[in-house]
Amino acid sequence: MDQVDTKISKFLSYVLRHQPESIGLVLDSEGWADIGTLIKCAANHGKRLNYAIIEKIVDANDKKRFAISVDQKRIRAVQGHSTQKVDIRYQEKTPPEILYHGTATRFLDSIFKQGLVAGTRHYVHLSAEKSTAIKVGQRHGKVIILQIDIQLMHEQGFKFYQADNDVWLTKTVPVKYISVI
Ligand code: HQG
Fold first, then answer.
1. What is the pLDDT of residues 97-110, one digit of tens each?
2. Ligand 1 centroid to 139 CA: how many Å?
3. For a FRET experiment, which of 52, 73, 91, 112 has its CA 20 to 30 Å from that of 146?
4. Is 117 in the pocket of ligand 1 (CB under 6 A)?
5. What confidence tens digit (pLDDT) does each residue in 112-171 have?
6. Does 63 sit in the ligand 1 pocket, CB within 6 Å?
């Protein structure tokens, strides 16, 4: 993706996950927006998009952040939402025994007091790969990788979901399941 595409991708993340109302867009509870309406709303706010550009960004996206509906008419972000307008009914899934969470060292004190919390997003994001956790954590500062005892959490009744792009989601991770690696 070139710089222009990255800018459009960030714009799509913003309106499809966080602030649809900033361009007058309405998402349904599963996060879907009509693509024609998205193009019109974006144009009204000075962003020129068309179907081909949107399709290219969806296909090229490194993390498969977005999905287009089977009938090709709608688009949504597959995870990462903070807008309260959206509440995707993810299917519960049996998780692997261990998952990782990349964060920054400056958050550790608070994490070991409160556990991992979703903050503004709807879920805590976890990954099966350490390499992914490293990339996620680096966005926040000096990275540190936390290992989560998912097997125990699952046995003790915590629910796990997997978004279409393989990111694992759960509502919260109490301190007792977290260790630093
Ligand atoms: C931290 C990106 C203090 C948490 C990524 C994280 C991911 C706490 C930060 C997705 C805490 C929230 C999500 C506590 C958690 N005290 N800090 N009790 N509990 N934190 O960006 O997981 O590129 O909302 O460790 O790839 O970093 O947007 O979450 O550092 O999949 O598609 O609070 O976002 O995807 O930061 O990243 P974020 P995240 P996209």
1. 999 999 999 999 99
2. 9
3. 91
4. yes
5. 999 999 999 999 999 999 999 999 999 999 999 999 999 999 999 999 999 989 999 999
6. yes
